[in-house]
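Figure 2 data, in text form.
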Amino acid sequence: MQRMKSKSDYIITVTIFPLHILVEKENPDYRRMVCVYLLTYLQKLGSKDVDEFTYPDGEEGYTEGLLETFPEFSISSGCFDDYLAANVFDCVTSAWQSDFISKDAENKAYIGYDFRKRSIKVNKIEIQWVTNTTTPEYVYIESFADGKLWELVKKVDINKPDDPKEIYWNQIIFLNEMPEKRFWRVRAGIGLPGRFAVGELKFYSKI
């Protein structure tokens, strides 16, 4: 017999004051996303001391700081026309598109960042996808420290909108604790009708 879920299975308590949100316990990515957005909202209201939260199962929460990036330190497998890799980090121009297209781009095309002299422990990545035809079925999040071998961090399925004509939507990806690495990238998987494209790419690190 399947156990009936109790109210505690769906509650997250924010420690600044008694505030509860109903969230599916079985989806930790969504659960964390809700908490991060809530804490950001509270901080904007003036609650500067809010920097952590707890789950009923004892899992520790945290706020994530957006890492500063500069367009000139972007890396990619190559760019099509004026859709440069730098575009995803300047928050002004449209997007990056790979020079590879469709089958040639699958498992090859990538966009990422070189943190230069700093090795970074990335805990969250936020990606802005551009169109259905420039987005694969899944991507690989990869990193490396020594410039010799990329290591797989996570394979991520893409959350595509119901309307195939919709453009520019965001997806947040939470990562497990990772060693500090200098280079981070997002590499296309399969199921790519056109060129691989990304509108914005943001990296967050645990504060």
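Caption note: The first helix runs from residue 28 to 44.
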